[in-house]
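**User:** Once you have settled down, spend some time on the protein underneath, comparing sequence with structure tokens, and judge whether sequence predicts the tokens.
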Amino acid sequence: MRSPRAFFEPLALGAPPPLREIPVKPARMIHFVDFSSEKMVAKVPEIAPTVDVLLGNLEDGVPAERKEAARAGLIRVGGELDLTPTALWARVNALDSPWALDDLTQLVAAIGDRLEVVMVPKVQGPWDIHYVDRLLAQLEARSSLPRPILVHAILETALGVANVEEIATASPRMQGISLGPADLAASRRMKTTRVGGGHPGYRVVEDPDPARPDAPRAEAQQDPWHYTLGRMVDACAGAQILPFYGPFGDIRDTVACEVQFRAAFLLGCVGAWSLHPVQIDIARRVFSPDPDEVRFARRVIAAIPDGRGVQMIDGRMQDDATWKQCRVIVDLAEMLAAKDPELRAVYDT
């Protein structure tokens, strides 16, 4: 068993020490880009300022014959373009693939000083994180990097869900976890071809009316991801890392995308993936607190400055617990306002 005292020691001689706190930065949308496309590389200067995180995708969605081109494109973007303040992430290939090792070794050597987070797909348990943790330390030492690269796990297998608490606490590199509904659905043998969101067949129906047993009965569509998302959020909160909703695959259905993103935001997620430019504005809107909520939260904090006691505001009781809820809203609003001039104006900061 590893000693707790050694948890924050570098795993390789010469590697930077692990971070003791995960930086909390705007990450409302993780925008996926396949840099094997010259057209997409050319659009980076236009897209990067509109997103919080720009992610070079090397895994699913990139055909085998374009894997190396996608990696080379990401290295080119990271090495040649100044993306500040947008964060640069990479989703590497699955650890059991023939590309994962080259992804990690080449990315760290070429752009390790620019790369903030490595997203690891199909994480099954803490052993996957341990492998990446040690390898990154060795590569950081070889490249004399001054700071550690963080790790983000994708929760997309049934075994991964069963081990989500252990995954969240596997390494001080852990930055966050995203829900990966498509692969998770396949792993669970779920009968759906959708990528995220609800399903019209997953419903509840009200009891029959005894007086009119044949009368129509109200039905409501349910969210098949609610349990998994809630468990993932709890695991992340317990480990003090960040939870994210993953992809919403129906690009045309912006209404359902917004509803799904908002449900994730209310449950505790800090952001979601954007697969198309139309989802960027949805994520920005949803994962930024409502201005009216921010104003009310500020009133509560002003009425209970030290977070202790009870006050009645607009007929609603406010106490220590609601003060903490309001602190979450205000802290998020202030962080986002520091980056976004439009939010700064509406939040009156």
Observations:
- The radius of gyration is 22 Å.
- The chain has a mean pLDDT of 93.
- The first strand starts at residue 29 and ends at 33.
